[in-house]
């Protein structure tokens, strides 16, 4: 199956971060924060959203930082994905 986002939506997959701190302490599952860095898998066409013209500025393959509690989580082919609005993407990681 394939997800095709509509309007200003973006499909992302969270990237697992390192499980140890800089000082070498290994974090347990409960001590880890939800990752906020994700890879863009699909991008909607943009267009007229809520009466305003939206131009999509992210593209497939970009690494992005998303708002911590944004988006809708979906599971597709045993893969956990998140659908967010472009406005919930805070930055592109270069």
From TrEMBL:
Any one GO cellular component localisation term in the record: cytoplasm
Keywords tagged on the record: Chaperone, Cytoplasm
Keyword Nucleus: no
Alphabetized PANTHER family for the sequence: 10 KDA HEAT SHOCK PROTEIN, CO-CHAPERONIN GROES
Subunit description: Heptamer of 7 subunits arranged in a ring. Interacts with the chaperonin GroEL.
NCBIfam families per UniProt: PRK00364.2-2, PRK00364.2-4
Protein name as catalogued: Co-chaperonin GroES
HAMAP family membership: CH10
MF (Gene Ontology): ATP binding; metal ion binding; protein folding chaperone; protein-folding chaperone binding; unfolded protein binding
Pfam families: Cpn10
Function: Together with the chaperonin GroEL, plays an essential role in assisting protein folding. The GroEL-GroES system forms a nano-cage that allows encapsulation of the non-native substrate proteins and provides a physical environment optimized to promote and accelerate protein folding. GroES binds to the apical surface of the GroEL ring, thereby capping the opening of the GroEL channel.
Family recorded in the similarity comment: Belongs to the GroES chaperonin family.
Protein's UniProt keywords contain Secreted: no
Organism: Candidatus Ventrousia excrementavium
Localization (cell): Cytoplasm
InterPro entries, per the entry: Chaperonin_GroES, Chaperonin_GroES_sf, Chaprnonin_Cpn10_CS, GroES-like_sf
